Amino acid sequence: MTSFASPEEPTDQWIDFHCPVNPRGYGYQSPSSSSTGAATSLAGYDWLDFSIAGDSASAFWSLCYDYYHGFDNFRNGYRAKFGKNTFVSSVVRFRWDVGKDVTSTEYETYMNQLEIFRKWFSGNIMGPDSGTLSDAILIMPYGEPHPEYRDEAIHLLGPSL
C-alpha cells in the first residue's frame, strides 16, 4: 500500500486496508516500499533462492522539486474550485514541503551534480551491460528489520526515508 517509490504505512485502525496473509505463516505483516513483491515471492515459493528488487532514485531534493511543481496546476485548481487545500498522505505532504523550498537554481545545480555522479557510478561501480542491463549487483542495508503487523499501531513520528 504505497504511492510509487514512497514507503507508507497505514495509520492505526484502518478498516479498509487488508494485507495478504504471509504464506510462511508469520501473521498479517504490513508490506511497504517498492521491494514488497520481491520479498513476497521469496516467502511464497520454497524453490526460489533469492529475488532482486529493482529501484531507481535520484537526488532527493531534485525529486521533491519535481514532485512538488509537477502538481502545481492540480493544487491551484483544487484550491480555486473547493476553497481549500487538497488532502494528501503524510509522505506526499513531507515531499511537497521539501520541494516547495527548492529554487530552480538549486534544482539545476542538483541535477548537474546528479549527472556527474551518475556518469562516475556507471563507469566505475555499476557498469551497463547490453544483455543484463548491468554487470553488478549492489546490496545495501535498508532500515532496521523487524516485523510490522497490520493490526498493531505504528509508532513513527513522521515519514521514513
Based on CA inertia axes, which overall geometry fits? Answer: flat
Query: Could you spell the SSE succession in H and E letters?
Result: HHHHH
Annotation field: number of helices: 5
Secondary structure: helix percent: 25-40%
Mean pLDDT: 73
- What is the CA–CA distance across the termini? 16 Å
Q: List unreliable stretches of 5+ residues.
A: none
From the alpha-carbon coordinates, what is the Rg to the nearest angstrom? 19 Å
For the sheet with most strands, the description reads: none
Number of strands: 0
Provide the structure class.
mainly alpha
**Proportion of residues in β-strands:** under 5%
Q: What is the subunit arrangement here?
A: single chain
Any idea how many domains? 2
Q: What's the topology here?
A:
Elements: H1 36-44, H2 60-69, H3 72-82, H4 90-99, H5 104-124
Helix pairs in contact: 2-4
Structure description:
With 161 residues, the chain is an all-alpha fold. The chain folds into two domains: 1-52 and 138-161, no CATH class; 60-124, no CATH class. The protein is built from five helices and no strands. The longest helix is centred in the last third of the chain and has 21 residues, at 104-124. The protein starts with 35 loop residues before the first helix and ends in a 37-residue tail after the last helix.
Structural descriptors:
161 residues; mainly alpha; 2 domains; 5 helices; 38% helix; 0% strand
Summarize the structure.
By secondary structure, this protein is mainly alpha-helical. The chain has helices spanning 36-44, 60-69, 72-82, 90-99, 104-124.
